[in-house]
Design a protein that fits this description.
With 487 residues, the protein is mainly beta. It is 3% helix and 56% strand. InterPro entries: WG_beta_rep.
């Protein structure tokens, strides 16, 4: 008996020293990796959702439960549908009605609603009898269900909620008091104290007191236009200044209603670092916050300023687009010899493009002063992510991938057949070339920032989206998690 115990202890110690230990905890199969730096919750679920407040929803046989980051099943598979935990509560669906549970899985607000949102600032939007209202964490209505739609809210900051009654939008506060009357065709929350409103096809701005600070006389304040769906990036507003369109021309007005520039530009972009790109007679230049043209229109295209510099397009040269770098005075930055184009890959770092003696394009890394940090050795430099940039080289007509740091040092050699940007200190890779027949059914694994393989290629998904240090992995139609325990 003693010999058997010693043998079991030896096997466990062998797994520990190899950096891998398989654990079965509450029906969930997990693997500890690299001396407790990482954890793999093996793909075993039919569906999963991302971690939120330390718990993730998982589904087996059409029933949902929750696991923690140790891979322990903390709430059993018993719900028809679930939401994510927010402010200690998660929405659950039982017999087509929604309620809320706490972190122990106990129902604290009985299922009674047709639809619900997560809790946010102590309130959750709920729909009952086809009308929306708000409840508190005790399940009591604090704003009666009387609205047809809740389109936007900022409960934590400005305590404002954009709602619709019939065909008109208005704004209420968290007490249900009306801030902006229900007479607008569209209202968009822009900042914690400002709203874009639309009526009869015209746009303007209303403040948090319900006062119209920019009259509703403009054709658009949103780009692109017309919209198919509204995203925050579409709102033409930055640095306290709105873009406004009238009679097919663009201008600028600040959030107090002060006109910065009358609508006179063929096209325009948001302000960035105090300057905005504008188009006049087919060419782009820049104005400042007073509306003064500080860099005359001369470019085919102009990007935003970041780190005191901007990329501008000069012209097209054959297959290449000639782009250069300018400072805020409009002065061209001296670039590495032979540079045809530049592309921003980080706030103050750029890919520069040259051609070699054979006419093949090659790229290198340079800083915002035009200093080359690497020679033009690469086929491509990706944008920096998590402190490193993915680089691609061509060896024997095959793409090989590695990584450079912000100083241009090659920190992971170009040895991978396929690789992806770093996130949370890890990156996906594959050992099979996607351009070959062998790579058609390729699998993916993970490496760390030293290029060390954490998990060999075995997963089907080529995407990572980390939430609370965990990303979903897929294998043979089942889902699990790869978790970074030590960033």
């Amino acid at each position: 008996m003693q010999k058997k115990s010693i043998l079991i202890l030896f096997i466990v110690m062998a797994f520990l020293f190899s950096g891998i230990l398989t654990v079965f905890a509450g029906q969930v199969n997990t693997v500890i990796l690299d001396n407790n730096k990482y954890l793999l919750i093996k793909p075993q679920f039919d569906e999963v959702d991302n971690f939120s407040e330390g718990l993730a929803a998982v589904c087996k046989k059409d029933k949902w439960g929750f696991i923690d980051k140790n891979g322990k099943l903390v709430i059993d598979f018993k719900f028809d549908e679930v939401g994510r935990f927010s402010e200690g509560l998660a929405a659950v669906c039982v017999n087509n009605k929604w309620g809320f549970i706490n972190r122990t899985g106990n129902i604290v607000i009985r299922p009674q609603f047709d639809e619900v949102s997560d809790f946010y600032g102590g309130l959750a939007a709920v729909c009952k009898d086809n009308k929306w209202g708000f409840i508190n964490v005790k399940g009591n209505f604090v704003i009666k269900n009387q609205y047809d739609e809740i389109s936007d809210m900022d409960i934590k900051n400005g305590l404002f909620i954009v709602v619709r009654k019939g065909n008109k939008f208005g704004v209420i506060n968290r007490l249900g008091q009306q801030i902006i009357p229900f007479k607008y065709d569209l209202i968009v929350l822009v900042d914690s104290d400002i709203f874009i409103a639309k009526n009869n096809g015209k746009y303007g701005v209303i403040n948090d007191n319900g006062q119209v600070v920019i009259p509703l006389i403009y054709d658009s304040m949103i780009k692109p236009f017309p919209l198919k769906s509204l995203d925050e990036s579409d709102i033409f507003y930055s640095e306290g200044i709105f873009g406004v369109k009238k009679n097919n021309k663009w201008g600028y007005i600040d959030k107090t209603g002060k006109i910065i520039a009358e609508p006179k530009f063929e096209n325009a972009k948001k302000f960035s670092e105090g300057l905005a790109a504008v188009k006049v007679n087919g060419k782009w230049g820049y104005i400042d916050r007073t509306g003064k043209m500080v860099i005359k229109p001369q470019f085919v295209e102009a990007d935003d300023f970041q780190g005191g510099v901007a990329v501008v397009k000069i012209q097209s040269r054959g297959y290449f687009t000639e782009t250069k770098l300018i400072n805020k005075k409009g002065t061209f930055i001296k670039l590495p010899p032979g540079t045809i184009s530049v592309r921003r890959v980080d706030t103050n770092l750029f890919e520069y493009n040259v051609t070699n003696s054979n006419g093949d394009p090659l790229v290198g890394l340079m800083d915002c002063t035009g200093k080359a940090l690497t020679n033009a050795l690469f086929f491509h430099i990706d944008e920096f992510s998590d402190g490193l940039a993915l680089v691609t080289m061509v060896n024997n007509n095959r793409y090989k991938h590695g990584y450079i740091d912000r100083k241009g040092n090659l920190v992971i050699n170009t040895t991978f057949a396929e690789a992806y940007p770093f996130d949370n200190g890890v990156a996906l890779f594959s050992d099979k070339d996607p351009t070959t027949e062998d790579g058609f059914n390729r699998k993916y694994g993970f490496i760390d920032k030293k290029g060390k393989v954490i998990l060999k290629p075995q997963f089907d998904s080529d995407t990572t989206e980390f939430h609370e240090g965990a990303t979903i992995v897929e294998q043979d139609g089942k889902y699990g998690f790869f978790i970074v325990l030590v960033p």
